[in-house]
Design goal:
Chains A, B, C, D, E, F: InterPro entries: Hexamer_Tyr-coord_heme_pr_HTHP, HTHP_sf. The structure is a homohexamer of 76-residue chains. With 76 residues, chain A is mostly helical. The first copy, chain A, contains 3 helices and no strands. The relative contact order of chain A is 0.19.
């Protein structure tokens, strides 16, 4: 996903799946706010605010659910 | 979906599926606020607010879950 | 659903399924606030507020997930 | 569910399923705030606030997803 | 679950399943805020605030979804 | 998960599954705010705020849903 292109939801491990979930969460923000400059300005705001961090964690949780299911929970 | 009519949830790749999830999120906002003028006025508000961006990402995450399932996670 | 009575979750297309998801979202609000007069007063408030619109879109997203599943994602 | 006891998630129609979802949402509030007097005082607050109504609709949406699945989407 | 140890997600009835969902919601709060004294101080705050009650109901709704699925919706 | 590396979603009991869900919730916050110093400063803020605690419980609830499914609800 170096280019931002999402090729597959398959990952080798839950750890990699979690990293993918984080990227999926960030992807919506990049699409909604394409300016990297503005996103960088916002970063210190939400990364030092407990409620923003919890909300971020919620988005990741939803994506991780999707990625985990796509990988059959890495049970194979 | 150029005309806004949603014909299918099938996409060729996760990347296209994600784009569809973004459109599905926007669709509810267009229905609730049909005025393009007002939506354009709101855009700089939420696109520069970290919490609004995170909330947007959450809506996309729920739709991406739906689209991913509809496409059997592009595992076929 | 002209009378507000919900007969089925089946729809012919994703577009109709999305419209049903919007109605399902509105239905809870009508039950919680039965007065049409008060709901009409609230409409300009939430329809011009970015965060309210995003929250509305989230409710629709959850219902669309349900409707899409009920229709086997219109894959049949 | 007249006595508040939840016997089954089965309903005959989606309309009844939706009504059950509303009751399931209210049930958590009754457990968390057992005083009917306080709940009655809160009612005019959230029932005239757009964001509270949308949040209520979200809880109903999650429960409706559960009830719909329990009834195989009333497709039988 | 008297000791707080979660042994099973199986319950005999939806009513017991709902009670388990409430306990699952409380469990995260106990883990995040282990002080019973502080939790007791917070209780009158959120139990008299409509939005806090609705948010609580949402957490219960997600857990009830899990518990209901674990029990095959008590359809057996 | 002592090193923070997520190896598996399998746990022996629901109790351990819940503990894993809590870790999964914390993981997103550690990724978004890598500074342990800042996270420690935020802790007294959200752990004494009812709404932050409820929001935390919601993230855990989503992850617990994933972990419970991955373990077939510990029904085997």
């Amino acid at each position: 996903m170096t280019s931002g292109q999402l090729q597959t939801l398959r990952t080798s491990t839950p750890e990699e799946g979690y990293a993918l979930a984080v990227k999926l969460a960030q992807k919506a923000i990049k699409i909604t706010q394409p300016s990297e400059e503005i996103r960088k300005m916002l970063r210190p705001v939400y990364s030092t605010n407990a409620d923003s961090l919890i909300a971020t964690a919620q988005v990741v949780a939803i994506h991780f659910q999707t990625v985990a299911f796509a990988n059959n929970y890495w049970n194979d």
